[in-house]
């Protein structure tokens, strides 16, 4: 599994994990992200149960496990959080932040020790020591209770399934040729994202944010000007096409 | 890491921590390689009086490569064992659920298909555990071998110091520096290996797995 430090500020750093070459073939490749401060860490979308062991191995190389105090699940899907039953045995004192509406569903993955911190519809902020992280609403993109993580100091937006592309584990971490990359994103966004209204509302809010890195949960990371390019591309894309396709 | 309480952790965590400890030794091995290269260059520059030392640098280089290979092999085994241990945890969870289902059945007889599934899971669980215990024994034995290899480092450092006496005062410091570096890095690696061994021995492996 690749492990790449995305950005380091005086107070914290962002780390990317993904592209596990030992991942079973038929499971979708996922990106995991971790924010590390001096004594705490937040792991975002920890991944499926098949990914637990490589994630654990990489995390203990970086920080003592006691430092991993916070988990975040952008939504309830198995590729996001089906490893929860094992994290629950590993980090009994951790907090899991996710949508209020998914608590009863996510607990099906097994959760006896970790405490569930429900995020309200309008989102919320937390402080990881002196670092403020905002859970911003991204409902219906694609899940009906969905959030992204924005870090104003590092200018990073962890954008969940928005910006995702379907590629193999050999793909690079960063987008190189934006136009070529849109071909790998189009079907995913059209089929998985159900609502143009939700999409446009999200784009309007995200355009107000200062973003240097847009980090999806699948595919590649957008940097600098590519962020605006992505928002423009996403805006003109008609989504929720599943009904038309099957008609 | 020494402040942690490994005996309270699931075994897949312990094995992952061992892999992480050994991963750090790889950087130390590269330091020994570099030291050996520098020493070799210095020996060539000095000429005949440093011939004995030049031979030693080959041994230092060899020692670093052996240590690096051993650390890589153990690291690989530890990662495999950690993955296997998560499968064991999953089989264990399934067995718990089967037991729970049987309890719910009460006086009713379990269906043959359910009995078969439970039996297969139990067999899988035992075979996974047996494979896991084999891996752990292998890791422990490799860690012991690595510790023996590291003892050679101290012997090499001592011989380096003796050879340093053969060259003029001006170059002695370079060679003594090499000996000190070999000692220092070997000690750092030994501490990591000891931490790895302690992580294992403080844990009741069969209980935790």
Automatic annotation (TrEMBL), chain A:
Pfam family membership, one: ODP
Metallo-beta-lactamase domain sequence ranges: 29-218
UniProt protein name: FprA family A-type flavoprotein
Source organism per UniProt: Shewanella corallii
Automatic annotation (TrEMBL), chain B:
Regions annotated as coiled coil: 129-156
Superkingdom field: Bacteria
Organism in which the protein naturally occurs: Shewanella corallii
Biological classification of the source: Bacteria, Pseudomonadati, Pseudomonadota, Gammaproteobacteria, Alteromonadales
Keywords tagged on the record: Coiled coil
Name the UniProt record assigns to this protein: Chemotaxis protein
């Amino acid at each position: 599994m690749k492990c790449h430090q995305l950005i380091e500020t005086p107070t914290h750093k962002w780390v990317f994990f993904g592209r596990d070459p030992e991942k079973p073939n038929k499971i979708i490749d996922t990106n995991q992200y971790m924010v590390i401060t001096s004594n705490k860490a937040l792991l975002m979308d920890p991944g499926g149960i098949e990914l637990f062991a490589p994630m654990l191995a990489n995390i203990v190389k970086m920080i003592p496990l006691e430092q991993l105090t916070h988990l975040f699940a952008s939504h309830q899907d198995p590729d996001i959080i089906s490893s929860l039953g094992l994290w629950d045995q590993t980090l009994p004192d951790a907090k899991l932040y996710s949508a209020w509406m998914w608590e009863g569903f996510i607990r099906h993955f097994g959760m006896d020790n970790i405490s569930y911190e429900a995020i309200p519809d309008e989102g919320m902020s937390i402080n990881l020591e002196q670092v403020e992280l905002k859970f911003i609403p991204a409902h219906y993109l694609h899940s009906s209770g969905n959030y992204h993580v924005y870090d104003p100091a590092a200018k990073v937006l962890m954008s969940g399934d928005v910006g995702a592309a379907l590629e193999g584990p050999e793909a690079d971490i960063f987008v190189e040729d934006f136009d070529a990359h849109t071909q790998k994103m189009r079907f995913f966004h059209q089929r998985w994202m159900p609502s143009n209204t939700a999409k446009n509302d999200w784009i309007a809010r995200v355009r107000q944010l200062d973003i240097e890195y847009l980090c999806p949960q699948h595919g590649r990371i957008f940097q600098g000007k590519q962020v605006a390019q992505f928002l423009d591309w996403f805006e003109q894309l008609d989504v929720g096409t599943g009904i038309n396709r099957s008609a | 890491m020494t402040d942690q309480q490994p005996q309270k952790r699931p075994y897949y965590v312990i094995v992952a921590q061992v892999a992480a400890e050994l991963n750090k030794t790889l950087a130390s091995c590269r330091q020994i390689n570099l030291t050996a290269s520098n020493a070799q260059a210095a020996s060539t520059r000095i000429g005949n009086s440093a011939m004995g030392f030049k031979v030693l640098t080959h041994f230092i280089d060899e020692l670093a490569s052996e240590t690096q290979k051993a650390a890589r092999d153990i690291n690989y085994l530890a990662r495999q064992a950690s993955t296997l241990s998560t499968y064991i945890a999953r089989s264990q969870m399934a067995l718990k659920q089967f037991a729970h289902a049987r309890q719910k059945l009460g006086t009713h007889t379990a269906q043959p298909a359910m009995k078969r599934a439970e039996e297969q899971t139990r067999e899988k669980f035992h075979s996974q555990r047996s494979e896991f215990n084999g891996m752990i024994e292998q890791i422990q034995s490799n860690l012991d071998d690595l510790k023996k290899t590291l003892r050679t480092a101290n012997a090499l450092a001592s011989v380096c110091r003796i050879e340093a006496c053969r060259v003029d005062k001006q170059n002695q410091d370079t060679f003594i520096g090499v000996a000190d570096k070999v000692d220092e890095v070997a000690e750092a690696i030994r501490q990591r290996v000891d931490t790895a061994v302690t992580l294992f021995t403080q844990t009741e492996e069969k209980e935790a797995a």
